Known about the structure:
This protein has 17 helices and 11 strands. By secondary structure, the protein is an alpha/beta fold. It has a domain at 2-268: Amidase signature (AS) enzymes (Alpha-Beta Complex). Helix 5 (115-122) links the parallel strand 2 and strand 3. Helix 8 (229-239) runs antiparallel to helix 17, helix 11 (319-337) packs across helix 13 (369-382) and helix 11 (319-337) packs across helix 14 (387-411). The two termini are 14 Å apart. The structure holds glutamine (GLN). The site of glutamine has 13 residues, from loops. Glutamine (GLN) binds next to loops.
Amino acid sequence: MANELRTKSAFEIGRLIRDKQISSPEVTRVFLDAAKADFSKAVGADDKINAFTDLTEEYAMHRAEEIQKQIETGENLSPFSGVPVAIKDCICTTNGTTTASSKILEGYVSPYDAEVVRRLNAAGTVMIGKVNMDEFAMGGSTETSHYGITRNPWDLSRVPGGSSGGSAASVAAGFAAFALGSDTGGSIRQPCSFNNLTGVKPTYGSVSRYGLMAYGSSLDQIGPLCHDVRDAAAVLSIISGPDKRDSTNIMDESFELCSVIHHFENVADKPLKGLKIGLPTNYLEMDGLAHDVRETIIQARNKYKELGAEIIDFELPLIDYAVPTYLIVSAAEASSNLSRYDGVKYGYRADGDDLLDVYYNTRSEGFGTEVKRRIMLGSFVLSSGYFDAYYKKALKVRALIKQAFDEALSKVDVILSPVCPTEAYEIGGQIKDPIAMYLGDIYTTSVNLTGLPAVSLPAGFSNNNLPIGMQLIGKTLSEEKLLGVAAEFQKVTDYHKKRAF
Ligand code: GLN
């Protein structure tokens, strides 16, 4: 029973709790025990997934009991009341540590909850811990964390993707029913692809960034990593909405996504009749795109055709510029955002003879290699003499990429593309070659540069029996349609029902 419970979707678990088949403390215990068994293994052990940076057991049990009381009196009957969630380590929580998986914030406890956490709490979810990530969300494999690498539950010799690798691994391994992650250049979508999960990078400005440790502020969005589209839609409707404390927020109210949740109940022969899906054929001709990933996308295309959608093949230009533009913009913003970690305001402080010495030593000792590389790159592209040649040019290219997507999306409703050129790769396989790792973000970074919403969902398995995801990109604030299109795929396929354990 315990293992079976861990394979269920968050929605199903919520229903069992509401129907009094099981209580929230019982559910929380099952997930915590599984998570704890892994958490207590020695760091570096070959069989340790290492999804968590902090397991908040005492808080979770206490919280589950409180929620259970509210459920019994009928006070809290949201679909996710009593359901266990894992939160990425760069999202501030007053319970547990928030370190962005960096040495520079080791032991740091936030004095406030992020807006998304406040919203989840109001919906009655139970946080069981904070989960591992690439340091400050810079990376695509969760190998740059100060707290050790996270392993992929589908194959422990492989990476879970990143930077939200701990979020993805915790759900795929059945340590939490769903998780929150953040996506600056693909960090929700790529780990979902590597772990057979459904995740959403929402429209920029639809989910509050208040309490999200900033990496690239004009690109960052928080979103869900779940077993299926129904869960993802329910979580997104909880966490999205207005917030005055995020000046980039554009919402008057939360997304209304009930129709997505009900997609599963409608039966129609050609449910997507009238829908236009664009497939950028040049995306499938890129060097480095694995054969099985390409085949998976073509099969998804055919499936959508069977569902009644019209498929429009077209060329989406500028793809070669997406990664360099993203790297310049994100590094520039990161170099400014990370200046606050100076050993004075919070976190780690090194010794030094004078103030400058303290800054220098704190940042030299507190940041890891990848973070330093990006701070240096960012400072360089913003420095006078190079600003016009790099940063300003990147902003111009960013505008052109946005134009290309807007034009494409004026002719089609949704764009279908790969998430990542490959399946999950071996641990150590790319970390020594940053350029190769950066190129893994070729299909995801444009979405952040343009602010558009995108979903990543299970679309098949590779010859090595590893999950492969597909990406659907929609118009600004078209989450309802986008998730509806994803839901129709999950109605007629079983990939998302397969589990790693
Ligand atoms: N992999 C990308 C990077 O290294 C994306 C990171 C992210 O979305 N946070 O920057």
